[in-house]
UniProtKB/TrEMBL annotation:
Domain of life, per lineage: Bacteria
Swiss-Prot/TrEMBL cofactor(s): Zn(2+)
Phylogenetic placement of the source organism: Bacteria, Bacillati, Actinomycetota, Actinomycetes, Kitasatosporales
Protein name (database record): Formamidopyrimidine-DNA glycosylase
Domain Formamidopyrimidine-DNA glycosylase catalytic: 2-93
InterPro entries in the record: FPG_cat (IPR012319), FPG_N (IPR035937), H2TH_FPG (IPR015886), Ribosomal_uS13-like_H2TH (IPR010979), Znf_DNA_glyclase/AP_lyase (IPR000214), Znf_FPG/IleRS (IPR010663)
Catalytic activity, as annotated: Hydrolysis of DNA containing ring-opened 7-methylguanine residues, releasing 2,6-diamino-4-hydroxy-5-(N-methyl)formamidopyrimidine
Gene3D superfamilies for this protein: 1.10.8.50, MutM-like, N-terminal
UniProt keyword Lyase present: yes
UniProt keyword terms in alphabetical order: DNA damage, DNA repair, DNA-binding, Glycosidase, Hydrolase, Lyase, Metal-binding, Multifunctional enzyme, Zinc, Zinc-finger
Domain FPG-type: 240-274
Family indicated by similarity: Belongs to the FPG family.
Alphabetized Pfam families for the sequence: Fapy_DNA_glyco, H2TH, zf-FPG_IleRS
Organism: Streptomyces kronopolitis
Amino acid sequence: MPELPEVEALARFLAERVAGRGVERVYAVAVHALKTYDPPLGALEGGRFEGVERHGKFLDLRVGELHLVMHLARAGWVRWSDRLPEVPPRPGKGPLALRVRLAEPVDGAGFDVTEAGSQKHLAVYVVRDPQEVAGISRLGPDPLAEGFTLETFAGLLDGERRQIKGVLRDQAVLAGIGNAYSDEILHAARMSPFKMATALSGEEVARIHEAIGTTLRDAVERSRGLALKDLKGEKKSGLRVHGRKGEACPVCGDTIREVSFSDSSLQYCPTCQTGGKVLADRRLSRLLK
């Protein structure tokens, strides 16, 4: 799933290529991905891109007084082309969900929004104000914003009675952190994913806050200047524990372990994060009952 660093890179990439350019045609190939109907998708045609922003994991492309907002979910992506096919796309079973064709100065350039896999959760909105999108209106603070201080983070954790892994992934608490980067942040902070937020000491809160900033900013910097087709590969290569079950921890050499859930999993290093304790695999535990 694209998280804050990848969506930030997408926003910067698109901003360099679409700002000031006109929208010639917009094709809704997968109609189920379109979550709004007023204004219609066609209202974007003839408009001009004014800029591209990011709200957590949401992309926001401003076209005149309208906003084309996209949430790429788990398997969505954006593909840029200097020359899109002349033939309009036809609805089908392929990954293509949306096509945006630009006008001048080079007719035919534009981008496709795709979604792989059978589970379709890609969401596209056309709104007059991004706050009309429920997922944006309930976002917590952006962890890369200047105002995200240690005091701000400590205030967010005050009274939280959940495990810190779940708190970091909650978009209403912090905008943009998902499963992968929460694993990376907790590894960098030497913190168990299962530790209760209410049990964190002041020093531990400070460690996590620092790890949030360094982990996300490093990931954004690694993505700077890369082509869209290379961003996913860069993300995977830059992760130290997430998705690396059975490999050696790059810090201590211990074996990276995994805890599986019904539809996701987390990875961690026992030596670095849990005092050597191997956490129970929830899915395996259910099978053994």
